[in-house]
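Lab meeting, item 3. Inverse folding demo.
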């Protein structure tokens, strides 16, 4: 099959003279119309440090594509940064931007009938095994599920628990460990972790990378074991924790499953009275007013994919709890998300969410709630009869947005247990 099997529809034949004229205006010459057209999705922006250094990578990618006989076409996509939007209405656009970016890239590639695309962005998401091994963010769950869906790979929220039981935490990294990203890089970084996983049969070495080589080929020169004299990356035989840190909890409070980061905790279970808040700002105000006591379970609801909308991260409330010395003694559950910097007895992605009538919507102030990471349990401690009575009395609140991109998102987005996707 010709490398330009798609783009020839706009570059070949007399009927496509107008199309070629447009392409000539952006630099195509006589010999370029038989070459494959490859899009370069450019996430460069000076809006945030995550994306500010991307342009040199894009320039090198463009040059490499030309050297290989392709015609690169660059286009941009929007970027939203949690670190700037955190704690404001802007944070609600973070997860929404994932769908907007995917739609923008799809629109450019298909609208211009490109043969391929190279996407260069500023934020990284890794495979579950790597996330487990490095002690990575709970956001891996909500992002990996839609990646699998887009690739038509069978993968559910329950598979994270299966992987968790097979892959130890190898890295001693903050927030639950001692070291930071620069220490991790000096100790061997992602290649070193991948090599350990490959050697122990939890990584598929035959998968192709962007270089055209397999993962096994790329890791051939990487040492089998981490270097001595450092405690950042541990060997498989002496991990930080024998199993992964992202536990999927279920119970009547989350029948579809929710996500807890359980490593580094001295107290792995809590049963206490619910302190109920219908938004993140309400919860933060109560925490800062020092009305939350040891043994309480804070409930922050109507912050899910539809209810928020956008499933914003609860970094401010969790940071406030840590700052008051309550990280080990107070539980927090939410249908929103958590930042990668969050630590403590926290459970996110509760599904079904409050806005669609999940059990979290029926929790009342003072109800007993149990979070038990060892039993993978999250439970509202009331009778089923009482739960059904509350369900029957509940009415769905009005949407927080009725126009614009957020209103569209509310109508389209799925449950968090399926990755909060908008096309399925």
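The presenter then showed the designed sequence:
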């Amino acid at each position: 099959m010709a490398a330009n099997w798609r783009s020839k529809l706009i570059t070949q034949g007399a009927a496509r003279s107008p199309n070629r004229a447009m392409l000539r205006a952006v630099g195509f010459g006589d010999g370029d119309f038989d070459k494959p057209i490859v899009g370069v999705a450019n996430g460069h922006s000076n809006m945030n440090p995550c994306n500010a250094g991307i342009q040199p990578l894009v320039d090198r990618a463009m040059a490499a594509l030309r050297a290989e006989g392709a015609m690169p076409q660059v286009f941009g996509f929007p970027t939203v940064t949690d670190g700037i939007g955190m704690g404001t209405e802007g944070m609600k656009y973070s997860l929404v931007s994932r769908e907007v970016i995917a739609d923008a890239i799809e629109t450019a590639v298909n609208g211009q009938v490109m043969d391929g695309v190279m996407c260069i962005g500023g934020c990284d998401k890794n495979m579950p095994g790597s996330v487990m091994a490095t002690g990575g963010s709970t956001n891996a769950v909500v992002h990996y599920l839609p990646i699998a869906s887009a690739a038509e790979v069978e993968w559910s929220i329950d598979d994270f628990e299966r992987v968790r039981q097979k892959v130890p935490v190898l890295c001693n990294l903050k927030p639950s460990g001692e070291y930071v990203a620069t220490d991790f890089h000096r100790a061997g970084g992602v290649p070193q972790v991948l090599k350990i996983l490959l050697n122990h049969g939890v990584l598929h070495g035959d998968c192709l990378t962007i270089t055209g080589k397999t993962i096994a080929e790329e890791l051939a020169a990487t040492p089998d074991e981490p270097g001595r004299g450092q405690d950042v990356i541990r060997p498989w035989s002496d991990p930080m924790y024998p199993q992964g840190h992202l536990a999927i909890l279920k119970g009547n409070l989350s029948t579809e499953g929710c996500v807890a980061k359980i490593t580094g905790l001295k107290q792995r279970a809590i049963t206490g009275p619910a302190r109920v808040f219908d938004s993140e700002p309400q919860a933060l105000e109560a925490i800062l007013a020092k009305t939350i006591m040891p043994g309480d379970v804070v409930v922050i609801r109507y912050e899910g994919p539809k209810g928020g909308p956008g499933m914003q991260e609860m970094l401010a409330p969790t940071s406030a709890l840590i700052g008051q010395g309550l990280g080990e003694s107070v539980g927090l559950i939410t249908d929103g998300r958590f930042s990668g910097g969050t630590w403590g007895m926290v459970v996110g992605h509760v599904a079904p969410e409050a806005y669609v009538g999940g059990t979290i919507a029926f929790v009342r102030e003072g109800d007993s709630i149990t979070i038990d990471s060892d039993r993978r349990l999250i439970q509202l401690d009331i009778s089923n009869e009482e739960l059904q009575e509350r369900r029957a009395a509940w009415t769905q609140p009005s949407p927080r947005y009725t126009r614009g991109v957020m209103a569209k998102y509310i109508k389209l987005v799925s449950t968090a247990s399926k990755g909060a996707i908008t096309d399925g």
